[in-house]
Design a protein that fits this description.
By secondary structure, the protein is of the alpha/beta class. The chain has one domain (about 10-265): Rossmann fold (3-Layer(aba) Sandwich), CATH 3.40.50. The protein is about 30% helix and about 25% strand. The longest helix is centred in the N-terminal third of the chain and has 21 residues, at about 50-70. The chain starts with about 25 loop residues before the first strand and ends with a helix. GO terms for molecular function: glycosyltransferase activity. This is Uracil phosphoribosyltransferase. Keywords: Glycosyltransferase, Transferase.
Length: about 270
């Protein structure tokens, strides 16, 4: 007779309350927020920057696995099986038979996607895990204001049918890059994903407004919401309560308080 203690493992996501809708999850984690504050601090440079990004995405990816991915029950013989027939662990684990595709939106998304890919390979059947690559850049007008995103090239390894489709991209600023990438898969890649999820360190109200309106099927996970340029009456309110007044982007579409352009600081390439 086995102990049913771990036949069903409850997991409750700790998240900040908001009014952005059920597809948005603002992860409330004091440790991760502390590390993110260090990452965004003016004096933080390489190699600490990439180390912190990898740490943050490792834990954020674990949160998404716990909250979103299906489970299955197993019976695993432990090393005690040679001594006693009770040496078998029976309980719930993440289902290794699930398909997952993580998308590297170069360049800020390169390291986050690699972290997600490596972690997925240790959790799922590696034969069911894939990493795709999209070269993307912002397009600006004559005033250096971001007006869209262009795909310069892509390496997509196949269909996404019944797969978890993941977009780990540190800064959710305007929502343009994510929307363009999601549309690429919806319009040009065969198969229907089981779930589409975007994973961010920081998002803005503007980002959430665009993504929730254009892609209501995309689940958003973020460690922090930045709305630092909002009018005074916004501060102290529950996020999304005064959504139309909330503002997190400056006139050049950089996040405030933010952390600077993550593509630049992660690569020491300020172009």
């Amino acid at each position: 007779m086995h102990d049913p203690l771990y036949s069903h493992i409850p997991f409750q996501l700790n998240e900040q309350p908001h009014h952005y809708g059920p597809q948005v999850h603002l992860v409330g984690n004091p440790f991760l927020l502390s590390q993110l504050a260090r990452l965004c601090a003016k004096g933080t440079t390489q190699p600490d920057i990439n180390r912190l990004v990898a740490l943050l995405y490792t834990d954020l990816m674990k949160t998404v696995l716990n909250a979103e991915f299906p489970r299955t029950r197993v019976a695993v013989a432990t090393r005690m099986i040679d001594s006693t027939p009770q040496g078998i662990y029976q309980g719930e684990v993440l289902d290794p038979a699930v398909r997952a595709v993580t998308v590297n939106i170069a360049r800020a998304g390169t390291l986050p996607s690699q972290v997600a890919y490596d972690l997925l390979n240790t959790t799922l059947d590696p034969a069911r895990v894939r990493q795709d690559h999209i070269m993307m850049s912002r397009t600006t007008d004559s005033r250096d204001i971001v007006v869209g995103s262009n795909i310069g090239g892509a390496k997509l390894g196949g269909d996404v049918d019944d797969a978890f489709l993941l977009f780990p991209d540190p800064m959710g600023a305007t929502g343009g890059s994510l929307s363009t990438a999601v549309n690429l898969y919806k319009n040009q890649v065969a198969g229907t994903p089981r779930r589409i999820l975007s994973l961010h360190l920081i998002v803005t109200p503007e980002f959430l407004r665009r993504v929730t309106r254009e892609h209501p099927d995309v689940g958003v996970y973020a460690l922090r919401l930045d709305r630092g340029l909002s009018p005074p009456e916004v501060f102290g309110t529950v996020p999304g309560e005064l959504w139309e007044k909330e503002r997190g982007l400056d006139d050049h579409q950089y996040i405030v308080p933010g952390g600077g352009g993550f593509g630049e600081i992660m690569n020491n390439a300020y172009v």
